[in-house]
Request: fold
Amino acid sequence: MRKLLYALAAFTLLFTPLAQAAPELRSDHPERYTVVKGDTLWDISGRFLNNPWYWPEIWHVNPQVANPHLIYPGDRLALVYIDGKPRITKVSTNGVVKLSPKVRSERIDTPIPAIPLDAISSFLTDTRIVTPEELNGAPYVLEGEDGRIITGAGDRIYARGDKPADKVGIFRRTKEFIDPETGEFLGLEARSVGAGTVTAENGDVLTLRLTKSNQEIRIGDRLLNNINRPISTSFSPSSPDDQVEGQMIAVDGGVTQIGQFDVVAINRGRRNGLKPGNVMAVLKSGNMVRDPVTGETIELPSERAGLMMIFQAYEKMSYGLVLQATRPLSVGDKVTNP
Reply:
């Protein structure tokens, strides 16, 4: 149960009401399915189950088979019944269910992930939430060689400030997050535009060689230590330990309608008990209507319209990935325990 706990345990505790409900097979579920490249466990479980997060309850493995939880492209899955209960297990190429011990060589290809990691990869590696003091106190780009104001990978640039490390990330301020409920400042979003190596120091003037650039490097961009950031792509989703209620405050890309696999920011973070893997229900805000009798403006009740998983939690806010959306979601919709 090593790597693919993030692909199997990814749905262990997910959502509502976990203790009372039982896994329900889809009416159009397949009897067999062959895993293809690009699949995620969410996709596959959704082919068999009405509620994909119950996958671990019907996943049947032979504990005597090496890495029984790993699912790879090309693996064949079968729906079988054991003691009258539906179970999904791997089958061999000749269609025989793998229920007995056998020698199996280690696969060298990559097991399928729980969720599409490409949807969040830039947020795991190239985006961070910082304080104004942290960003304003960081060294900043003065100019490129020969007085150039725009530079890229392979160029030499000059910066001013205390060297944070020999190898640094070049970041640019992108968004400022404010809690819409309280007006509290939550953080600044800084995105990586490149990376470089400090090759010389002359007082507080640094010389760098740019080793990577996602965008052009500009005067004023900031240098931050980009080494040894704790990053994990192994998620074990669960409900938050405490009751958490908040709302979506931004969506990546600035779209107006939010759907499956969009990245959103919410106004709750580690101080509220959130951590990577926590799953939240998204509640679509009810419409505002005028009471025809009293003339009052009434807000209709919020309705559950989606599910999201926190993949990066900061002190005051978090980023999450929308796993499921039954209706178009929008900034301002509420999030709460599933």
